């Protein structure tokens, strides 16, 4: 996690995963006529994935900001 | 409590509260205690993305086509995941270059082109118009609904009312007034509107709370939680289609909307304004990157429940689903909640309208009207005094114009559409900026012509496939424009361009416009060349993380201007007080000495340009600074050399080449020096062996004769005397040799003692002859001297001069062992100086030895006798002395046998 290059790749990977999960055809896998905990399946799945994504991004940003503070490095998104 | 006057009063009170917040935030910012400088405020201000579209429209969309209201919020979430690469970079570029708007951004990237900034402004104004009309429609509809409370009556036929009875017109007028108060109270030297940002952040809180309140009311008030609501909604015939996505066409639309919203979160002028232009600290993005998506998630949780609840409550489609958020509390007679829901909708609309119109009016002023006005010479704007009031007037006019235009679109076109479809029209227009922006920050090859081509093609296709059909549907164009194509040309049918079928209208338009936009941008970029300024800007944008805060950009201006020129220029646009403040800060930061008459260095010119850019945009700022700074921008070559990465590499390799050449030369020199040292070492060895040989010869004879004398006491007196005589002679020779060696060593080391003065050569020669007189007479030499009567004095050391003469004379005596030895001394005056020659009639110097004889210990022994007649040091000493005087010495062959030694001595200065 200390390596900004690796960090950038993780961000890109997360973006790619999000792009796939939030769009058909993967999205249509959840598009079934069923309920989960009383919610329509697609509805609850989209919001769950969404929430997890946001949490992951928040986690990564905080890790990076903490690392930057520790190293005293200037705030440079690409780490150069 | 929902009387008309209450609704009006609360609305006005709310707007006044907003204004008070903005005013307070501005005041705090001026005092240096900024409220806006806070990551939460920043994240909330980005939530201006959620407008009436989200607030009212999403529910309407969900009620008709289910979950496909969501891609509009998933797209921005995805883009914010990339904050690292895209948003962060745009923000950095915007801050470093003091960009004021999206038009400024694009035109700056492509060489600060005014043409491009104008085009972007026109696209933005035309494209955002439907979006603004959407807000007006939402506010006026919701207001008209409240007017009829407690009945729920769908306002219809508003377009038929006279303008003076149309609520939307008054909404537009009030919003224009407030926007003018918000955004254009004064022209700032900075591009930030902190008051506006804080007010918008406040609005984001209000609309979120209001929407959540309605959601909680519907879910837990009208029903018994989510499970109950969804269970009951199962009875709806459309339930399964609303909670799934099924058909291929809905897939296509889903992807299209995701792409559009991803572009919109970057390219919408108001999003660019709040996330990039108004950004006060790049680290705020760290929070916004998850807070903003979280906001989107939260505000969307209740969309589907409200839509389903509304469908259950108002069966039969009497009530427009776009109004469910308001009509459901109304139907349940929740007066307080209804009012709160109305205020929430109002805040969603006003937030968008305020930010969008400020962003657009700034663009219209900075990027469209000012550049044109500044170029119209007959207006003589360049010479006029304070222009800040003109700037304000243009911006205020722009705000009014934009809102009236938006109202016009609403009244005559937009009424027949749902909120979301109107908004998507605007998204598709804003998405046209995508290729120019994304290409501009990642690809250095994008050119101004490419951007112009891409934008105009994409915009043209958008007009043809989305805007014109909307006019046709509203009856402003013949309807067969859609069915049969313009002028009956089937290939140009707006919804089936070139016969492409099977896509929904939005996807169809997005596909064609992006194809033409990206294609035009890339192909024309590849086919055209960049100007020097374009290359500079491209490097600054693409390599923004690599270049230090302000790199050699100052080199772009190479001309002369005095500080007072620049100061007056800035003062005319931002006023004296703010100009003073700005330059004071510059002085503190750089320690520069700012005197009115002093010449401005490139750094100061650049500072001025960016200061003006903050107020009137890069394109206009460049024109204005150009009028003051005389002289050219940097030459093409210099710019290339300094900024182009490739040429930097070439430069480095060139330097390397140069270095290696220098190294080669140095090593060759070293080698030569080494050779010379070796030669000297050899010479030294030779010298030492010669010296020791020369010393040993007399020593050997001294020693052997001494031994004879010592061993053989029987020797007679006569013989004894003879031997002693030899010993004495050899000792003298040894002494002379050592003296000469020391002398030569001293001369060569430059440590000889010289007493240079003006001397009479005749006298010196006579003295030398006298000194060698005994020697001459001993060997019966005949001496002839030819001297002019009057000889000019020469500049030399008297004793050394005599030494040279004596040396040459004794040489002559030594070598002349013929029958009639003769020596001639001749003196002439020449240009070079006094020329003295000593000629003998001895055996002469062999050919090729003329140079050698002046070397140490070189003896030319014509008789080849083993016994040396001289030390071999006389002539080298002579040469040292003559050369010290500034003359030269050489030997010539005479006509007969014999040698003639010639030397020159310079005349004394002024000797006549």
Number of helices of chain A: 2
Task: Round the Cα radius of gyration of chain B to an integer and report it.
Answer: 51 Å
Total helical segments of chain B: 35
For the residues shown, what is the average pLDDT of chain A? 78
Q: What is the number of E strands of chain A?
A: 2
Spatial strand sequence of the major β-sheet of chain A = 1-2
Could you report the average pLDDT of chain B, rounded to the nearest whole number? 83
Tell me the span between the first and last alpha carbons of chain A. Answer: 15 Å
Main β-sheet of chain B: number of strands, strand sense, barrel status? 5 strands, mixed
Quaternary organisation: heterodimer
- Beta strand % of chain B: under 5%
Helix and strand run of chain A: HEEH
Identify the most extensive interface between protein chains. A-B, 43 and 44 residues
Low-confidence stretches of chain A: 73-80
* SS content category of chain A: mainly alpha
Please list the strands of the largest sheet of chain B in the order they lie side by side.
2-4-5-7-6
The structure class of chain B reads mainly alpha
Helix content of chain A: 55-70%
What fraction, in percent, of the residue positions of chain B are helical? 55-70%
Tell me about the largest β-sheet of chain A: 2 strands, antiparallel
Low-confidence stretches of chain B: 549-555, 632-643, 862-868
